[in-house]
Amino acid sequence: MKRSATSRSAASDVAAESAAAVVDGGAPDGAQGEPADRLEAHRTELTGYCYRMLGSAFEAEDAVQETMVRAWRSYDRFEGRASLRSWLYRIATNVCLDQLKGSRRRARPMDLASPSSVDTPIGTGLPETTWIGPVPDQRVLASAGDPAETAVARESVRLAFISALQRLAPRQRAVLILREVLSWSASEVAELLGSSVASVNSALQRARATLAASADAAEEPPRPLDDAQEALLRRYVDAFERFDMDALTALLHEDSTLSMPPYALWLRGRDDILKWLRGPGCGCAGSHLVPVAANGRPAFGQYRADGLPWAVQVLDLADGRVTALNSFLDTERLFPLFGLPLRYGGSPPS
Fold it and tell me: Which of 197, 246, 275, 346 is the most buried (most CB within 10 A)?
């Protein structure tokens, strides 16, 4: 089923429907009108949780919508024996586990094959369900909070970490996210999953071992951009928009990577990336880059010279260089998700 990139716009519909249902269906006196607001207050963190579980911004928003619908339908039976937040996470976990039944894990191109050569045909795109997709920071990260918690949250939505999570069985995935990212106690996770503390601790141990063997999980975590990185990004935008290969040579790490979902082809090494841009990627000449933020990383909406969408670029930075250029080409859905207009200089989607 095709999902709308603007499923977030349904939030107001859920809120209105929720309030109407409570009026009709029996929240305690004096609480009418409050449930929808109380539920919506948890939307961002729930979306982040579901995105870590599912690897897709669109599936995460669908899962949160389903969580909200189930929650307000059952709100009159919520007796407050647990916190509202814990109750919502229990619902969201069940929704995600149901959604993951029988599905293949999502991946990045580098998870599926060795790097390609510049001469490799780009091939045909694989289905959207193959790929881990990008997510706007504002959909999954709180705008304010404890700096240490914010750093953990940013690290836990980076593409490499999401890729590592996909290697875990779904219940292990839930345990690791709840324990390591959200800092729940083992007893809280056991209660949520209807399991024992011993089972939770065993699942966490196995999940940690799997992640420890993953190069993705060991990748340098993101940090707030400093002045040097901000300067690096300005130089990158200038060089890319001028399509200056000499300038890009100075900015790309020698072992940098380029990937382009929905295509499985990916490249490793600055020389191959620059050869590809001069050859098959020459359509990028004259591009315009519009800054956005995705997966705790700097990102850009890339428009072609004719002003039409080309890609959402998510960059990895380390050691004063660009180490990865992740280009996502599903612009029909991704540009509205990021609030980007479908023509350069146009109006953003409502």
Answer: 275
> Is 24 within a domain?
yes
What CATH code is carried by the domain that includes residue 250? 3.10.450.50
CA dist., res. 256 & res. 282, Å (int): 19
279-314 pLDDT tens trace: 999 999 999 999 999 999 999 999 999 999 999 999
CA 170 to chain centre: 17
Domain that holds residue 252: 227-337
| 252 membership: H or E segment, kind and range | strand 252-259
Q: Each residue of 35-68: pLDDT tens digit?
A: 788 899 999 999 999 999 999 999 999 999 999 9
Sheet of 252-259, strand order:
266-268, 252-259, 321-328, 309-318, 297-303, 288-294
Cis peptide leading into residue 262 (ω within 30°): yes
Residue that is last in its domain, among 184, 212, 240:
212
DSSP string, 174-199: HHHIIIIIS---HHHHHHHHT--HHH
The CATH number for 47's domain is 1.10.1740.10
| Cα–Cα distance measured from residue 21 to residue 218, given in angstroms and rounded to the nearest whole number | 47
**180, burial (CB in 10 Å: exposed 0-12, middle 13-18, buried 19+):** middle
* Per-residue tokens: 208: 């940690």
Q: Give the HSE-up count for residue 69: Cα atoms under 13 Å, Cβ half-sphere.
A: 9
Helix (H) or strand (E) holding 312: strand 309-318
* pTM for this model (two decimals): 0.88
